[in-house]
Amino acid sequence: MATINALDFTVKIDKLQKSQFVAKTYSDELSSNQVLLEIEKISFTSNNITYGVVGEQMNYWNFFPTQSGYGIIPAWGLANVIISNHPDVQVGQRFYGYYPMSTHLLVTIDNVSSKGFMDNTEHRQALPPIYNFYSNTEQDPTFTPETEELISIFRPLFVTSFLIDDDLADHNFYNATQILLTSASSKTAQALAFLLANRKKENGLNFNILGLTSDKNVEFVKQLGWYDQTISYDEISRLDTNEKSIVVDFAGNHNLQFRLQTLLSDKLVCNCLVGLVDWQNLEGEKPLPRKGAFFFAPKQARKRQKEWGLVKFQQKIGEAWLQFIDVTQSVISIKEHIGTEKLKQLYLDMLSGKIDPKYGNIVI
Question: Taking a C-beta distance cutoff of 8 angstroms, is the pair 182, 251 a contact?
Fold first, then answer.
């Protein structure tokens, strides 16, 4: 029996700035239906910080348990099978999915098809299935050397954006004439702005899409071409407060929420909370006049899968995705971070908001 050395990147649950690498080993003798994957690359966006901030409330720490008081932040990426004790999963196969920030992942295979498999490891069975499916990249023609890193960065975020757009459309956009996206340079906001702009153009809808962002990112957001107007946080007083408005909040900044709620008052017809990019400013001195509703993507996904069927659901996302990825290749540059120290530095930079939105970050 041989052992495989592995490494986990763990963070302190109650103090995210504190992190450590934890060494572990796996045996090459696996139980029935187990497979050991070696993680090749993962994407890193502000969405991963949200996973950490709401890890306890939303059960994100439960996907990849580690030592007490610490957690492993999940990330989307690619991994290769290095040991298999399942007849339908072969060594060398490559899978895209939800991985720990680690070098390896041990899974228990269930529901295998040519498209992929479900991880049926006991502690994951009660978690949303959308996170437990691993796609066989050989069966997905969109995985090419030119697109696979963009897929790792954007696909899970795009699905969230697709479901937000779909939910808003399902409610006839609450008859709003103004849709405001905070943290407009973030990857999930970019995808949502693209989808809203397309829907607006194709259906002749009467609303304006506004991107709210920091001063340093105003020009980048303008260049995307998906927002009708870009406003820096310092210029929020320029907002038209007479328009019925939707806020989709990716920032999570308490004081920003207070200002928006106060300015828009009863014209704020929907306050959709999504991300926590500005996680260090989640609280403020003044209580919010009203609370928003946190958007939980799996709930909307289950609703649509039930109404449309799984095949149609996947088809609709796929069609929208192909349009988006075609455009995004000219907008985002890939930046690779190789090794443990680079991962740690990227994590700290992401925590403190020192990230250039024109880059898509990949850890190898």
Answer: yes
Instruction: State the greatest distance between any 2 C-alpha atoms of the chain, in Å, as a whole number.
Output: 71
How many Cβ atoms are within 10 Å of 302's Cβ, its own excluded? 15
Half-sphere exposure of 311 (CA within 13 A, CB side): 0
- CB-neighbour burial class of residue 215 (10 A; exposed 0-12, middle 13-18, buried 19+): exposed
**Helical (H) or strand (E) element with 111:** strand 104-113
Q: Where in the chain is the domain with CATH 3.40.50.720?
A: 152-298
Nearest alpha carbon to residue 324 among 187, 221, 122: 187
Asked if CATH classification 1.20.210.10 holds for the domain at 152-298, the reply, yes or no, is no
Helix (H, G, I), strand (E, B) or coil at 160: helix
Kindly report, residue by residue over 315-341, the tens digit of the pLDDT: 999 999 999 999 998 889 999 999 999
Residue that the structure tokens 């990330």 belong to = 75
User: In 10 A of CB 195, how many CB atoms?
Assistant: 23
Q: Indicate the length of the chain as a whole number.
A: 364
Q: What is the pLDDT of residues 72-105, one digit of tens each?
A: 999 999 999 999 999 999 999 999 999 999 999 9
Return residue ranges of the chain for CATH 3.90.180.10: 3-140
CATH second-level architecture of 3-140?
Alpha-Beta Complex (3.90)
Closest by CA to 212, choosing from 192, 187, 239, 176, is: 239
Tokens for 104? 């390896």
The Cα angle at residue 158 between residues 306 and 292, in degrees rounded to 5: 75
Q: What is the pTM of this model?
A: 0.90
